[in-house]
Amino acid sequence: MNFGMHIEPTEQTIDVRALGRLLEERGFESLFLPEHTHMPVRGASVHPSGPHVHDRLRRFLDPFIALTAVASVTERLRIGTGVCLVTEHDPIALAKQIATLDLLSNGRFLFGVGAGWNREELRNHGTDPANRWRVARERMLAMKRIWTEDEAEFHGTFVDFDAIWQWPKPVQRPHPPVIVGGEGPRVLERVLDYGDEWGPNAEPGIAERVAELHRLAAERGRGRIPVTAFHVAPDLEILRRYAAAGVTRCVFSLPGAGADRVQPAVERLAELVATYEAAG
Questions:
Q1: The whole model's pTM is what?
Q2: ω into residue 234 within 30 of 0, thus cis?
Q3: How far is CA 164 from CA 104, 140, 144, 168, in A?
Q4: How distant is the alpha carbon of residue 2 from its chain centre?
Q5: Distances (CA, A) of 255 to 4, 6, 159, 242, 263
Q6: Could you read off the pLDDT of 204-233 as tens digits, one per residue?
Q7: Residue among 127, 94, 100, 131 nearest 113 (CA)
Q8: 243 DSSP 8-state letter
Q9: Any idea what the Cα angle at residue 251 is, between residues 186 and 140, rounded to 5°?
């Protein structure tokens, strides 16, 4: 099982470049960054954790620029979005961003995707919240065509373009792994439709849903699908249970704070991982 980290980076937190070097030195496999382009000042939509989180969410760094910076100072660390809100991007432009980042990182990018929860944020990008998953699906399928075809075209309800040329193509073929985030009732269908992996937040019923995912994949003639569990509690028994359930990557959450708090947290988690791996 691989181990990664998730942090919500702002101008007030540890420098992501320093964090990337630290994680690589301590043997972690990956670093994931979230995305919010902005937070609407007005609107009824609030995060399930409460309105106090808006101060943090409105300060996020752009994940693609931040991950490019991390890639420039590391060699092995995989870099990913956890998650990119594809409903807030033009798919042609986003396809080029991702392919460029995958090229410059020598094929280390992991594409975690979601549809977004803040209705006003989605509307500001021209997406009707009621259609967000349909929009996300078409944009994902369109980007896959751009990455895999020399002359790509797509004709859908929300995405429509005639044949185009676009380079670079991603280093990873056919494209970077698409990790579909979420825990909703239809998420496994989305994973099988346009994803390569499932990326749920850690939850008590994850073992049963991983088993269901593998069953559905087998019915469609697909092999076992990797599972990345986000926000995993730092507990040895939980790691063992997730591994037994078929989780292939556990991602811990780091505090959105400066180096004085983040570095000790990384060291503690590195010790936990070492204990887990030593036990076999």
A1: 0.96
A2: no
A3: 23, 16, 13, 13
A4: 15
A5: 14, 9, 38, 22, 10
A6: 889 999 999 999 999 999 999 999 999 999
A7: 94
A8: H
A9: 40
The Cα 22–Cα 40 span in angstroms is: 34
Strand partners, 152: 164
Among 230, 258, 256, 225, smallest CA distance to 242 is for 230
Joined together, the tokens standing for residue 173 give 């073929």
Q: Which DSSP helix (H) or strand (E) runs through 239? A: helix 236-245
Contact predicate 31/84, CB 8 Å: no
In this structure, what token pair is assigned to residue 45?
């939509």
**210, 250 in Cβ contact below 8 A?**
no
What is the Cα–Cα distance from 134 to 29, expressed in whole angstroms?
32
CB 215 within 8 A of CB 17: no
- CA-wise closest residue to 178 among 67, 34, 81: 81
Contact (Cβ atoms closer than 8 angstroms) between residue 52 and residue 104: no
Give tens-digit pLDDT for 136-166: 999 999 999 999 999 999 999 999 999 999 9
